[in-house]
Amino acid sequence: MKSGKVGDIDEYLMKLLMGSKNDPAVPDPVNVMTFVDYVDKEIVGFRSQYDSLSEFAHPNWAGTFLLYAKPDAAKGWIDFGVNTRAAQGPRIGGLANLSVALLVFEERCNRIDEIIASFIAICEKNLRG
Question: Are residues 54 and 72 in the same domain?
Protein backbone atom coordinates (compact mmCIF):
# COMPACT_ATOMS: atom_id res chain seq x y z
CA MET A 1 0.00 0.00 0.00
CA LYS A 2 2.81 2.38 0.87
CA SER A 3 4.47 2.01 -2.54
CA GLY A 4 1.25 2.67 -4.44
CA LYS A 5 2.08 -0.25 -6.73
CA VAL A 6 0.49 -3.62 -7.24
CA GLY A 7 3.90 -5.29 -7.29
CA ASP A 8 3.81 -9.06 -7.21
CA ILE A 9 0.46 -9.34 -5.43
CA ASP A 10 -0.98 -11.28 -8.38
CA GLU A 11 1.71 -13.94 -7.99
CA TYR A 12 0.94 -14.33 -4.29
CA LEU A 13 -2.82 -14.40 -4.83
CA MET A 14 -2.47 -17.08 -7.51
CA LYS A 15 -0.36 -19.19 -5.13
CA LEU A 16 -3.01 -18.78 -2.44
CA LEU A 17 -5.98 -19.49 -4.69
CA MET A 18 -4.56 -21.99 -7.17
CA GLY A 19 -1.37 -23.37 -5.59
CA SER A 20 -0.79 -27.10 -5.76
CA LYS A 21 2.05 -29.49 -5.03
CA ASN A 22 0.58 -32.04 -7.44
CA ASP A 23 -0.07 -30.04 -10.60
CA PRO A 24 2.93 -28.50 -12.37
CA ALA A 25 0.59 -26.39 -14.52
CA VAL A 26 -0.35 -24.19 -11.57
CA PRO A 27 1.79 -22.17 -9.13
CA ASP A 28 3.45 -23.74 -6.11
CA PRO A 29 1.34 -23.31 -2.98
CA VAL A 30 2.20 -21.17 0.01
CA ASN A 31 3.06 -23.32 3.03
CA VAL A 32 0.76 -22.67 5.98
CA MET A 33 3.77 -22.38 8.29
CA THR A 34 4.83 -19.32 6.30
CA PHE A 35 1.61 -17.65 7.46
CA VAL A 36 1.96 -18.92 11.02
CA ASP A 37 5.49 -17.54 11.32
CA TYR A 38 4.44 -14.21 9.77
CA VAL A 39 1.56 -13.84 12.24
CA ASP A 40 3.89 -14.76 15.11
CA LYS A 41 5.94 -11.65 14.31
CA GLU A 42 2.87 -9.49 14.92
CA ILE A 43 1.23 -11.58 17.65
CA VAL A 44 3.96 -12.97 19.88
CA GLY A 45 3.15 -16.50 20.99
CA PHE A 46 0.94 -17.32 18.00
CA ARG A 47 3.33 -20.02 16.76
CA SER A 48 3.48 -21.59 20.20
CA GLN A 49 -0.31 -21.80 20.37
CA TYR A 50 -0.50 -23.16 16.82
CA ASP A 51 2.01 -25.86 17.74
CA SER A 52 0.04 -26.73 20.90
CA LEU A 53 -3.21 -27.08 18.97
CA SER A 54 -1.43 -29.17 16.34
CA GLU A 55 -0.43 -31.64 19.06
CA PHE A 56 -4.10 -32.33 19.74
CA ALA A 57 -5.20 -32.24 16.12
CA HIS A 58 -2.74 -34.84 14.86
CA PRO A 59 -2.59 -38.49 15.88
CA ASN A 60 0.27 -38.40 18.35
CA TRP A 61 0.70 -38.53 22.12
CA ALA A 62 -1.30 -35.42 23.01
CA GLY A 63 -4.10 -36.18 20.55
CA THR A 64 -4.52 -39.81 21.59
CA PHE A 65 -2.86 -41.14 24.72
CA LEU A 66 -3.05 -37.91 26.73
CA LEU A 67 -6.79 -37.60 26.09
CA TYR A 68 -7.87 -41.26 26.24
CA ALA A 69 -5.48 -43.07 28.58
CA LYS A 70 -4.41 -42.79 32.22
CA PRO A 71 -1.49 -44.90 33.37
CA ASP A 72 -1.75 -46.40 36.88
CA ALA A 73 1.79 -47.46 37.79
CA ALA A 74 0.78 -48.77 41.22
CA LYS A 75 -1.69 -51.23 39.71
CA GLY A 76 0.44 -51.87 36.62
CA TRP A 77 -2.16 -51.00 34.00
CA ILE A 78 -3.58 -48.22 31.88
CA ASP A 79 -7.20 -47.09 31.97
CA PHE A 80 -8.52 -46.26 28.50
CA GLY A 81 -11.64 -44.32 27.62
CA VAL A 82 -13.16 -40.91 27.11
CA ASN A 83 -12.27 -38.41 29.85
CA THR A 84 -10.31 -40.94 31.90
CA ARG A 85 -8.22 -38.08 33.25
CA ALA A 86 -11.32 -36.04 34.14
CA ALA A 87 -9.38 -32.93 33.20
CA GLN A 88 -10.81 -29.84 31.55
CA GLY A 89 -7.37 -28.69 30.33
CA PRO A 90 -7.75 -29.60 26.65
CA ARG A 91 -11.29 -28.21 26.51
CA ILE A 92 -10.31 -24.94 28.21
CA GLY A 93 -7.19 -24.65 26.04
CA GLY A 94 -9.22 -25.25 22.90
CA LEU A 95 -11.83 -22.68 23.85
CA ALA A 96 -9.20 -20.11 24.77
CA ASN A 97 -7.43 -20.62 21.44
CA LEU A 98 -10.71 -20.43 19.55
CA SER A 99 -11.52 -17.17 21.31
CA VAL A 100 -8.14 -15.68 20.40
CA ALA A 101 -8.45 -16.93 16.81
CA LEU A 102 -11.83 -15.22 16.47
CA LEU A 103 -10.41 -11.96 17.85
CA VAL A 104 -7.52 -12.12 15.36
CA PHE A 105 -9.94 -12.90 12.54
CA GLU A 106 -12.15 -9.95 13.47
CA GLU A 107 -9.14 -7.61 13.69
CA ARG A 108 -7.87 -8.71 10.26
CA CYS A 109 -11.31 -8.37 8.68
CA ASN A 110 -11.54 -4.85 10.05
CA ARG A 111 -8.07 -4.10 8.68
CA ILE A 112 -9.12 -5.32 5.22
CA ASP A 113 -12.17 -3.06 5.44
CA GLU A 114 -9.84 -0.14 6.16
CA ILE A 115 -7.50 -0.72 3.20
CA ILE A 116 -9.60 -2.35 0.48
CA ALA A 117 -10.71 0.92 -1.14
CA SER A 118 -7.09 2.10 -1.38
CA PHE A 119 -6.00 -1.26 -2.77
CA ILE A 120 -8.71 -1.18 -5.43
CA ALA A 121 -7.66 2.36 -6.40
CA ILE A 122 -4.02 1.24 -6.79
CA CYS A 123 -5.09 -1.73 -8.94
CA GLU A 124 -7.24 0.48 -11.16
CA LYS A 125 -4.44 3.01 -11.52
CA ASN A 126 -2.01 0.27 -12.54
CA LEU A 127 -4.50 -1.14 -15.07
CA ARG A 128 -4.82 2.28 -16.74
CA GLY A 129 -1.05 2.53 -16.91
Answer: yes
